[in-house]
Write a structure and sequence with these properties.
By secondary structure, this protein is of the alpha/beta class. The chain has a single domain, classed as Class I glutamine amidotransferase (GATase) domain (Rossmann fold, 3-Layer(aba) Sandwich), CATH 3.40.50. Helix content is 21%, strand content 30%.
């Protein structure tokens, strides 16, 4: 059983995420000590960009050596900067985080489908057109390199990204039914390899 750790930013309830990861076969701890020996890290999708970056600082070294799953703002932390804050991001993916188009309701809240752009480990067994659950006001603006799936919301919103040991979803897999469960199972599998 893979031992995963959730970083708690102190901004929301991580119970649903923890339970979903446990159902996916993981042994889950919250707020590990840096260097704790976990097989993977999960950056939940609650909080604002500056707060998230502040909380991640002690875990930067750990993130270099284990698979990392970023959800919503956790995924946005992979980029170099965000219009939501002033702190620099991790910069492990090229691009920046920008506000959703002014022509669309913000936050984007509710169900949307994904369109698979290229194969990825998170998407194994997940069909294009699967429904996933969003709640966000910002999105990655990427050169497309790490993007494996998008959702249409006035523009193509990067929905799933993968690069090296960094995996991310703009949507909340713990709230996304069967597709979300499969994505979490796939991440647990990555951590067990």
């Amino acid at each position: 059983m893979s031992r995963l750790a959730i970083i708690n930013y102190g901004a929301g309830n991580i119970y649903a995420l923890r339970r979903s990861l446990e159902w996916a076969g993981a042994d889950v701890t919250v707020d590990p000590a840096p260097g704790d020996g976990c097989a993977g890290l999960v950056l939940p999708g609650v909080g604002n960009f500056d707060q998230v970056m502040s909380e991640l600082e002690p875990y930067r070294r750990m993130m270099e050596s284990v698979p990392v799953l970023g959800i919503c703002v956790g995924m946005q932390a992979f980029y170099g900067s965000s219009q939501e804050g002033r702190s620099p991001g991790l910069g492990v993916m090229r691009g920046a985080v920008v506000r959703l188009p002014a022509s669309k309701k913000s936050p984007h809240m509710g169900w949307n489908t994904i369109s698979v752009r290229r194969p990825g480990r998170l998407l194994e067994g997940v069909a294009g057109g699967s429904w996933v659950y969003y709640t966000h006001s910002y999105m990655a603006e990427s050169d497309g390199g790490p993007v494996t799936a998008v959702s249409e919301y006035g523009v193509d919103v990067p929905a799933v990204v993968e690069q090296g040991n960094y995996y991310g979803t703009q949507f909340h897999p713990e709230k996304s039914g069967a597709a979300g469960r499969r994505i979490l199972e796939n991440f647990v599998g990555v951590c067990g390899r």
